Amino acid sequence: MADNKRTARRTDASGRPLDSRHPLMRPVDRAEARMHRILVTLFLMSVPFAVVVGVTLFHSQQSSALELAARTSTVQASTTIEAPAGVVASDQFSPVEPTVLTPATWTLDGTKHVGSVPVAAHSPAGTTLPITVDDQGRRTSPPPTGVDVAVVSVFGAGALIGLIALALVVTRSALVRVYDRTRERDWDDALARLLS
């Protein structure tokens, strides 16, 4: 039983032996097998690196979101006029009323501000809705939520792993072509020596 294990040869995907002590294994085959092991090792080492980058990105985005949330406030805006009709193509049916920008007012720290807010078409005057404003009372986008931060972090880590994998696949393709050319050249040389 031990003899069977000793004589069994490991092979790569193409069936070539990976055992570098095999007497028929050429140096180019050994180099190609070594290259495959190195590339797989590099990819496996890149996964923890990408996870660290993702966690770092998460903490960075989270602190940025907290700073932005500290500089913004949510206030109630009230429209001053009835919202106009939305422009919809006559041949299209939409079950949702289109939103239109309508003049509105809101108050922050006792100061009244005027601007436009998006509301459904035909909304009556006095319609209220929450908006996010900066410390000077200007409308701004709301700060990212925890889900937004997590999605950006996961996407960043995944994109990094994808880029590393792509670089390794391109490297492997280029090296395999080099090894194949070397193998063909060695084969031609051996055949020429045999026939001469």
- The topology string of helices and strands comes to HHEEEEH
Structural class: alpha+beta
Strand content: 15-25%
Task: Work out the number of β strands.
Answer: 4
Provide a descriptive summary of the structure in words.
- 52% of the residues lie in helices and 18% in strands.
- The chain has helices at 2-7, 27-71, 146-195; strands at residues 72-79, 99-108, 111-120, 128-134.
- A hairpin with a 2-residue loop joins strand 2 (99-108) and strand 3.
- Helix 2 (27-71) runs antiparallel to helix 3 (146-195).
- It is elongated, with a radius of gyration of 33 Å.
In short:
The protein has 196 residues and is of the alpha+beta class. The protein has three helices and four strands; from the N terminus they run ααββββα.
Task: Describe the secondary structure blueprint for this structure.
Blueprint: H1 2-7, H2 27-71, E1 72-79, E2 99-108, E3 111-120, E4 128-134, H3 146-195
Antiparallel strand pairs: 1-2, 1-4, 2-3
What labels would you give this structure?
about 200 residues; single chain; disordered N terminus; four-stranded antiparallel beta sheet; alpha+beta
